[in-house]
Design a protein that fits this description.
heterodimer, A: mainly alpha, two-stranded antiparallel ribbon, disordered C terminus, B: mainly alpha, two-stranded antiparallel sheet, 11 helices, 4 strands, about 70% helix
């Protein structure tokens, strides 16, 4: 019999690997189906659903690095910004380019990418920047890396604000085609959730978690610390960059100041709520916090949302979020799922293989 | 030559402020592994103490005193309520906790004082400028350097020549073994938070005297520079904090002077890029200890 379970390890063998991936697929497809249904029935506005989907992609991207390596990153907003700007630049219609960005290099001015290409460009640019920084940065201690990711955020923000010929500087970058649809968002979402599961259960993910749990023992076992971190940094930057590109095609207008710490807050809160060490947790956390958020909004009464909704939080929400993050870490540091993942248990061909792979108790300490 | 000396003085004065900020951070990092993202917010709250004193037309020294008390008290309260429960938590958890604390403190500041800047008045003497052989020595710059020297000297005395300092150093070195020698980690951590807060309060005086106003979202600038300074100098080391702070101040001044005006907007990007390269060369920071990977 095939059944879903929460497991903190995938077990050995191809069947277990496929089971773990199928679990991720089931989770992602399930969440997407519910979201689509909600949209179809009109209970929730589709801009809210799209924003939820984009946020969920960001959280999966964030968790892929932070969860597996145990290193907090502030840099992911920078990757989101890079994805958004890169996608915006390649997808901006030619007449608008001539008007807004007259100094654009010719090869950029003469192209006009469609959505899939522009998403790919957004992801790749973010990934290349992450690789560039990563190979230098990942040699230091986790705390120093966290600090440097903050510096990366400042660097990227400054470059975007000053590279006027590419980004219009601090002025609003507008006119990006509004191509982001529900289908695209959730298609990308499902692909990335499965992709993140592949990464997590691959050799690289295992290496990174081994380094996270005990760097010295990991090195003694022949794991190379720097590549294990750089690899996940790049992958997670790619996911976040594509998320940023989707965001750009959804909002169509943004400026460098759209991408700063207030963007991190929601993502961090979602990741912690679900369980920082779990990719399924990232998805569940995104769902849970979005539901809570939407519920609170409705309680506050008749607050309809326009098409251009910037996720700007008012200060009471910030206060609650801040206290909520502290309280969660204090009393429920493992979040909802701990370090467990939604997994499909394959029908056992040999019962002896599955014994000893029991339900977990919610996992080991959070990184 | 005079121009060069002038730049050295400017760099030292900026750097001494960073060094102090970094000291406050590194003390807490040493005893419990937390880099406090809310540190800048403590300075902002000290700034509001100064601003309230200005509004009430109180003498400046009362404002300064209340800034130091507010910062010390706030840091202690945060230490007890928010951070001490996480004494044995991994670094990422600690960092995210402090991120939550920063959010909460900032939202509270916005709710209490509002978004617009609050003016901070400083005594006339702060604006005085000495001139020595063509060298400009503004009182505020000299003041920050003197303040840094005094604080560092006091801290050095505390750490080397008192029982409390010994306990702090022992805890920073190895908490579990310190505990075997009847050092109570919880208490030591609170002492570190108190000192860290007091330093934040002291820094806030020249810091806001320069700015002349305080805004609730102004905390990132001191936080990021203090973060970079301790990463550059070496995490958890007192000497590292001082070296890192001064080096950061010098680097900023160098780029400020040498970058052509067309790319002056990229100043921070250049400074941080150079620092990342330095950390590639010495992953443990300038001061030497190499805590690679861990």
């Amino acid at each position: 019999m095939i059944r879903l379970a929460l497991r903190s390890d995938r077990g050995l063998g191809v069947r277990a690997f496929v089971g773990a991936l199928t679990g991720a697929l089931v989770l992602a497809v399930g969440v997407s189906a519910i979201a689509m249904t909600l949209d179809r029935t009109g209970v929730v506005g589709s801009s809210i659903i799209i924003l939820f989907g984009i946020n969920a992609i960001m959280v999966v991207g964030f968790q892929t690095f932070v969860g597996n390596t145990g290193i907090m990153s502030f840099g992911h907003v920078a990757f989101m910004a890079l994805g958004a700007y890169a996608a915006g630049i390649v997808a901006l219609p030619k007449p608008l380019k001539a008007a807004f960005l007259p100094q654009l290099p010719h090869w950029l001015a003469s192209i006009e990418f469609s959505l899939p290409l522009s998403l790919a460009v957004g992801g790749v640019v973010a990934m290349l920047v992450a690789l560039g920084f990563g190979v230098f940065v990942m040699r230091t201690s986790p705390t120093a890396i966290s600090i440097i990711t903050f510096a990366i955020l400042v660097i990227v923000n400054e470059v975007l604000s000053n590279a006027t010929s590419l980004t219009r500087g601090t002025e609003t970058f507008s006119g990006v085609p509004a191509d982001t649809t529900l289908g695209w968002v959730f298609g990308v979402f499902v692909a990335f959730v499965v992709g993140a599961a592949v990464v997590k259960w691959s050799r690289f993910g295992l290496d990174a978690r081994a380094v996270r749990d005990d760097p010295i023992a990991a090195q003694a076992s022949g794991i190379r610390v720097v590549p294990s971190r750089v690899y996940l940094f790049a992958i997670s930057a790619f996911i976040t960059g594509v998320g940023g590109a989707l965001w750009a095609h959804f909002l169509t207008a943004f400026s460098p100041s759209s991408f700063f710490l207030d963007q991190v807050v929601v993502i961090v809160a979602m990741a912690i709520l679900g369980g920082l060490e779990s990719m399924s947790g990232a998805v569940v956390g995104a769902v849970a916090l979005s539901v809570i958020n939407e519920g609170l909004r409705r309680l506050e009464g008749g607050f309809s949302i326009g098409v251009v909704h910037v996720p700007a939080l008012d200060d009471v929400t910030d206060l609650i979020l801040g206290l909520g993050i502290i309280a969660l870490l204090r009393w429920r540091p493992h979040g909802l799922l701990g370090d467990t993942e939604v997994t499909v248990d394959a029908p056992a061909r040999d019962a002896a293989l599955v014994t000893g792979e029991g339900q977990t108790d919610g996992g080991s300490p959070v990184p | 030559m005079i121009t060069f000396l002038q730049h050295v003085v400017d760099g030292l004065s900026v750097g001494s402020t960073y060094a102090l900020l970094a000291l406050g951070l590194t003390l807490v990092y040493g005893v419990m592994g937390l880099i406090n993202f809310a540190y800048g917010m403590i300075i902002i709250w000290a700034g509001y103490a100064l601003a309230v004193a200005t509004t009430l037309d109180l003498p400046f020294w009362i404002g300064a005193l209340s800034a130091v008390s507010v910062a010390t008290g706030l840091s202690l309260v945060l230490g007890v309520l928010a951070f001490r429960p996480f004494l044995n938590a991994p670094p990422a958890t600690l960092l995210i906790t402090s991120f939550g604390v920063e959010l909460a403190l900032q939202a509270t500041a916005v709710l209490v004082f509002g978004e617009p800047a609050r003016v901070i008045a400083t005594p006339m003497s702060f604006g005085h400028v000495w001139r020595v052989h063509g060298l400009r020595l503004p009182a505020i710059e000299v003041g920050s350097i003197v303040l840094a020297v005094l604080v560092i000297a006091a801290l050095d005395f505390l750490l080397r020549h008192t029982a409390l300092g010994l306990e702090l150093r022992a805890t920073a070195e190895n908490r579990s073994i310190a505990r075997l020698f009847s050092v109570r980690p919880g208490r030591v951590v609170l002492v570190a938070f108190a000192i860290s807060g007091a330093i934040a309060g002291l820094v806030s005086i020249p810091y806001f005297a320069r700015l002349g106003a305080v805004t609730p979202r102004g905390d990132l600038y001191p936080t990021i520079n203090a973060f970079i300074a301790i990463a550059l100098g070496g995490l958890g080391s007192i000497r590292g904090a001082i070296v890192g702070g001064l080096a950061l101040g010098m680097l900023q001044t160098i780029f400020d002077v040498t970058l052509p005006s067309s790319i002056l907007g990229y100043q921070d990007a250049f400074v941080f890029a150079v620092i990342i390269l330095i950390l590639v060369w010495r992953p443990g920071g300038l001061s030497g200890r190499v805590p690679e990977f861990t």
